Amino acid sequence: MLSSFLSVNREITVGQWPLVKRFLKGIFNLKPSLPRYQKTWDVNIVLQYLMTLTPVHMLTLRVLSYKLVTLLLLLTGQRLQTIHCFDLDDINVTDSSIYIDVRTLLKCSKPGSHLQPIELPAFIDDDRLCIVTVFKEYLLRTSSFRKTQKLILSCVKPYQHVSKATIARWVKTVLQLAGIDITIYKSHITRSASTSAAFQCATSIDTILKAAGWSNDSTFRKFYNRPVSKQNYNDNFSVKVLRSQKLSN
After folding, report:
1. Looking at the structure, do residues 23 and 145 belong to the same domain, yes or no?
2. One domain for residues 52 and 145
3. What would you report as the CA-atom Rg of the chain, rounded to the nearest whole angstrom?
4. What is the pTM assigned to this prediction?
5. Could you give phi then psi for residue 7, rounded to 5 degrees?
6. In which order are the strands placed within the sheet that holds 97-100?
7. Domain range spanning residue 167?
8. Residues in domain Tyr recombinase (predicted)?
9. Which of 62, 83, 85, 185 could form a disulfide with 104, with the two C-beta atoms 3.0–4.6 Å apart?
10. What SS3 state is found at 99?
């Protein structure tokens, strides 16, 4: 940025000045900018735990909320911000799928580009991991006290729309209960875990980029693709993530 406005002389900018280059190299050596995670946790571990939270109609509202937000993060490959923005006016739920068209400005939004609509089909292989089943139960359970169209509500009165920090805390709780070391992995790494699991299942790069909202694969390969268990099935992103736990057995 400084090089755009300042120059040492007509031939060299501040960014190319040898003393500045040496200084920045020294900063890198003292505090290198390295990836936070060299590997990610196995999605199978969390999915196995979520399978124990059944039947959904017997769960408390808090546990049901935990299961819903964790499944949404894993099956969409989205940030916490996206899940936090989900609005019922933008969601169409049927017995076979959930269709979500996010109309809120997101981190990935820019002129001429926005997150593509999200479609989550019912997972017929195992009803315990079916997002449609969990989603419909959550809507039914919250219908009597819902005063906002925002999807995720608090579990106690006055049942307001929760913050992103609350969702992050819920996800960390699920990870901890599932056996994930939360001193190493934070809630936002669900994005890396789900996209890496889908990639190891032979999901096409185009499908992953569309699901996560990335414009090119360099972001995924550089920052999110980490070693994870191998799986293999059809090319639907959410189904790939769910089926990853079956193939590891």
Report:
1. no
2. yes
3. 21
4. 0.76
5. -145, 150
6. 91-93, 97-100, 118-121
7. 43-247
8. 33-238
9. 85
10. strand
